Amino acid sequence: xxxxxxxxxxxxxxxxxxxxxxxxxxxxxxxxxxxxxxxxxxxxxxxxxxxxxxxxxxxxxxxxxxxxxxxxxxxxxxxxxxxxxxxxxxxxxxxxxxxxxxxxxxxxxxxxxxxxxxxxxxxxxxxxxxxxxxxxxxxxxxxxxxxxxxxxxxx
Length: 155
Ligand SMILES: [Zn+2]
Prior knowledge:
Layout: H1 26-39, E1 42-46, E2 53-54, E3 72-75, E4 78-87, E5 100-107, E6 114-118, E7 131-136, E8 147-152
Antiparallel strand pairs: 1-2, 1-3, 4-5, 4-7, 5-6, 7-8
Bound molecules: zinc ion.
């Protein structure tokens, strides 16, 4: 690639940055997380115009753009795998040693899936459509990781 600078005598060091940070989860995200943390309930929002239930909840309906910030509904802690991938790339930022499964899970009563870890099953045994249930973390982190993972269950 042409450059205006001669870099032939430059030594480069590849690296990654890890920065501590805090972000505001927002009004809807905050209630979702605190309800999960305090009551082990998974909350969504239902659009009263198009009847779509969004989980994780969002302030605005992705279909008709209505404000949903006061349209709370509880969804199930069980659901089905609608898609998944097997993560095989080891990295210290990964939540688990590889290989592990990240699944898109549509919870009972929800129209949109959440992405979470699927464990207690070998990756090669995971199938789309299988029933799964949430396993809550013993110790809260006040994050989505208060659901430690999902595991297979009877449908
Ligand atoms: Zn809508």
